[in-house]
Amino acid sequence: MTATHNPQTMESNSPPPDAEVPPRASRRRFSASYKLRVLAEYERLGWTDKGAFLRREGLYTSHLTAWRNQRDRGGEVALGAAAGRQATDPLVRENTHLRKENAQLQQELARAGRVIEVQRKLSGLLEQLATDSPSTSNGESKRLSISVSRR
């Protein structure tokens, strides 16, 4: 069995391409001083040089827009701040948790109160049935009605 070879690959002595999958890319992080330097340099450039600058730095205009907004809001402190949701105060977090737990416990207490009320009424009716005769004077059986109020 003979294998056919491509003459172009036989002529070049270059190594075969790397078949290994590259590692997963990580999110890039930029320091506040880098952001300020890039913004200053970008704003100095002419209209035709800005695209080349962005390609050279590997940036997008959306980066610069976000960095300008951060700079205008709070200067270097805002540029260096971590992106994402603000950390909550532990006391505020605990207070919120306790309020939710309190509301849940109040609902359970109200439910338990309704159950106790139904049990009390049922006990009274069963006691009444035990002491009364099961039929009325004309021979008909008594009907029990239990009303449970929902709050």
Describe this structure in words.
With 151 residues, the chain is mainly alpha-helical. Among the domains are: 29-84, no CATH class; 85-127. The protein is built from five helices and no strands. It has helices spanning 7-11, 32-44, 50-57, 61-80, 90-131. The longest helix is centred in the C-terminal third of the chain and has 42 residues, at 90-131. It starts with 6 loop residues before the first helix and ends in a 20-residue tail after the last helix. The mean pLDDT is 79.
Order of helices and strands: HHHHH
Helix content: 55-70%
What about the largest sheet? none
User: Total number of helical segments?
Assistant: 5
Shape: elongated
Beta-strand level of the residues, as a percent range?
under 5%
Give the total of beta strands. Answer: 0
Mean pLDDT: 79
Rg for CA atoms? 39 Å
Poorly predicted ranges: none
* Secondary structure category: mainly alpha
| First-to-last CA distance | 88 Å
List the helices and strands and how they pair.
Layout: H1 7-11, H2 32-44, H3 50-57, H4 61-80, H5 90-131
Summarize this structure as a short list of keywords or feature phrases.
151 residues, elongated, 0% strand, 5 helices, mainly alpha
What's this model, at a glance?
The chain has helices spanning 7-11, 32-44, 50-57, 61-80, 90-131. It has 151 residues and is mostly helical.
